[in-house]
Design a protein that fits this description.
By secondary structure, the chain is α/β, with parallel strands linked by helices. The protein contains 8 helices and 10 strands. The structure holds fructose -6-phosphate. The site of fructose -6-phosphate has 14 residues, from loops.
Length: about 260
């Protein structure tokens, strides 16, 4: 894992945007894996700025989101489809027919999940998967004890995640119990993973992901098995790491041509 520590959330977003644009420039038809939540917002703002001010072109891109709430119609303000429209997709030029977000209203969820996996395969896999981490250590909505080889499926949120996400809904009771999420195996199939974490609240989960044992109790630790993971943290999210000075030295001494 490459661990990059930046001064604040905005710098994390700018660094992450450099990774995404580098991946995009290396592919004719880039496939971007996207996440929702607070963490990737500075990344999305920077991508929008690059699109507007520097003509970054998303016209050949496809996108696949990690997850969606079960039972929320696409137009519901808290659906992840609405979130993506508002914070990124309506402001850049990804062709709408190449935007993929799991269908939380599917009548046959098992078939919808299998179709989602098939759509990712047909697109030739995900070039870069953007990830955030839950305080529970989840990636996507793979909560602790998720199978490390899981594929896209329905999952039940933990109370902790429902509490964390209540800020978007107003009350905890309104947060759905179920989601469709890419599995950990699905995420690990991406050619590159770009994990972002900001804020002191994420520090214990970040330390468990990077320096803890590989365990289903911290699903993000499965990223230890992926050959190309870049973790971009702000100082607060990095504060529980025991090897912080090592990561900084490695980054500062990285040859210029290897940098994103
Ligand atoms: C969102 C997702 C989740 C979030 C995580 C962190 O699509 O898959 O894993 O990345 O819950 O959320 P924030 O960024 O809101 O702290």
């Amino acid at each position: 894992m490459e661990v990059i520590i930046q001064p604040n959330a905005e710098a994390v977003g700018r660094y992450a945007a450099r990774v995404v644009t580098r991946v995009m420039r290396g592919r004719l038809a880039p496939v971007l894996g996207l996440a929702t939540g607070t963490t990737p917002l500075p990344l999305y703002q920077e991508l929008i700025r690059l699109h507007r001010e520097e003509a970054l072109d998303f016209g050949a891109c496809s996108t696949f989101n990690l997850d969606e709430y079960v039972g929320l119609p696409a137009r519901h303000p808290q659906s992840y489809r609405s979130f993506m429209q508002e914070h990124l997709l309506s402001r850049i030029n990804v062709p709408p027919e190449r935007v993929h977000i799991p269908d939380g209203m599917a009548e046959d969820i098992a078939t919808a999940c299998a179709d989602y996996e098939e759509a990712i395969r047909k697109a030739d896999g995900i070039d870069v998967q953007v990830l955030g981490i839950g305080t529970s250590g989840h990636i996507g909505f793979n909560e602790p004890t998720s199978s490390l080889r899981s594929r896209t499926r329905i999952k039940t949120l933990t109370d902790r995640t429902r509490r964390d996400n209540a800020r978007f809904f107003g009350t905890e009771e309104d947060v759905p119990h179920h989601v469709i999420t890419m599995g950990i195996g699905t995420i690990l199939d991406s050619r590159r993973c770009l994990m972002l974490a900001t804020g002191a609240g994420k520090a214990p989960a970040v330390a468990a992901m990077i320096e803890g044992p590989l365990t289903a109790m911290c699903p993000a630790s499965a990223l230890q098995m992926h050959p190309q993971v870049t973790v971009v943290l702000d100082e607060a999210a990095a504060s529980a790491l025991t090897h912080g000075s090592y990561y900084r030295w490695v980054y500062e001494n990285k040859p210029a041509w290897q940098r994103d």
